[in-house]
Amino acid sequence: MMSAQSAAANFGSMVRTIRKAKGLKSWQVAEKVDIEVKHLGRIERGEKQPSFDLIIALAEGLDVSPAKFFEFEPAAQDPNALRKQIIRQLKGRDANQLHMAQEVLTILFDFQ
After folding, report:
1. Which letter does DSSP use for residue 48 in this model?
2. What's the whole-number mean pLDDT along residues 2-7?
């Protein structure tokens, strides 16, 4: 079973990943959900656990389902299974969506 601290870190990582994928700065999201930028930073680092109301506000501010923040897998998952999962997610996507996925990967891995 995952500890609360580990879940908070995974949750925060998902918030940060989604925020960056949407091209938003932390201050923009904090402003949308009416919290301090420092508080959002603590959530993204897993140092603070947001309330239910804040989870909903973050989801609305980032235009995603609240469940999206909890779509994390155990860190020890098989890399081949992860590759297959990524390929499944890309199937049926149009050129624009594939381009967006490529941009997100570039940002995540800091490629030029």
Report:
1. S
2. 73
21: left (phi over 0), alpha (psi -120 to 50) or beta: alpha
pLDDT at 36: 97
Rounded-to-integer distance, Cα 20 and Cα 28, Å: 11
Task: Check the CA dihedral 60-62-65-71 and report its sign.
Answer: negative
Question: pTM value?
Answer: 0.65
Reading the block at residue 21, the tokens are 């994928």
Phi-psi region of 3 (alpha: psi -120 to 50; beta: other; left: phi over 0): beta
Structure tokens at 66: 């609240």
Contact 18, 7 (CB under 8 A): no
Read off the tokens for 98.
């594939």
Q: Give the percent of the chain with pLDDT over 90.
A: 51
In angstroms, what is the C-alpha Rg of the chain? 15
Mean pLDDT of 65-79: 74
